[in-house]
Amino acid sequence: MVAPRLLFVHAHPDDESLWTGGTIAQHTAAGGDADLIVCTWAPGTQRHAEVVEAARILGLPREPIALGYADDRIPASAPGAPRFCEARLDTQVREMVAHIRRLRPDALVTYDPIGVYGHQDHIHAHRLADAAARAAAVPNIYRRLGDPWQIKSIYEVTTSAWMVDTLWEHVFDEKEVDRLQAVSDDDIDLRVDIDSAALLDRKEAAIQAHHTELDRSIAMKALMSLPTDIRRKLLATECYHRRDLIPGGTPLL
């Protein structure tokens, strides 16, 4: 069976590696094609350069597409551009539809409706990706942006309860971890287990490419400083909810 063509939509540089790096690495290592859209941080900024390097490490065949909006808390992430959550949604949907119709992915990967842990940029990325995936398939919307394209399935990043328990114990304080959604294994539609040491090494290397965020984020630094067995157990599992936009949808891997 031919591997599905995937489109990953993430809010910030580093999200692609932390939440979906194993899925990307496993997919590309098997010969699958994929693209990455990053909604914040403009070309020419340090974190954009870092996500370009991380994407290369994960095996993506093309540089990430940067929408170039500003990170909610860091105006310098896109000088002169509006904050991602404050820009007009209809303008953003139109832009995303153009990318979808050009790239023609079978499946789209983004966050769940609460952005995994409530970050407003993540929530907005979910809303944008969902609206654009649906609009891209409608012939009489945005006719000048190319032929309509039907995405078959959307896969939404979520977190298993055991992962949240581990993070509570080792990484986050009570206030931070309380924002993470804890989903029982029975409510997870797809669990990707990265059982190849080489692919897990690639995911870790991609995370390490995000030097700026590793220096800034206490939680990210704590995660990557965990004992090797605990860290790799966490990073080796990626969980998704699946929503089919047509009957039968498509597998992710």
UniProtKB/TrEMBL annotation:
InterPro entries, per database record: GlcNAc_PI_deacetylase-related, LmbE-like_dom_sf
Cell cycle as UniProt keyword: no
Any Gene Ontology biological process: glycoside metabolic process
GO molecular function terms listed in the Swiss-Prot or TrEMBL record: hydrolase activity, acting on carbon-nitrogen (but not peptide) bonds, in linear amides
Keyword flag Nucleotidyltransferase: no
A Pfam family annotated for this UniProt entry: PIG-L
Keywords assigned: Zinc
Protein name: GlcNAc-PI de-N-acetylase
The organism of origin for this protein: Gordonia amarae
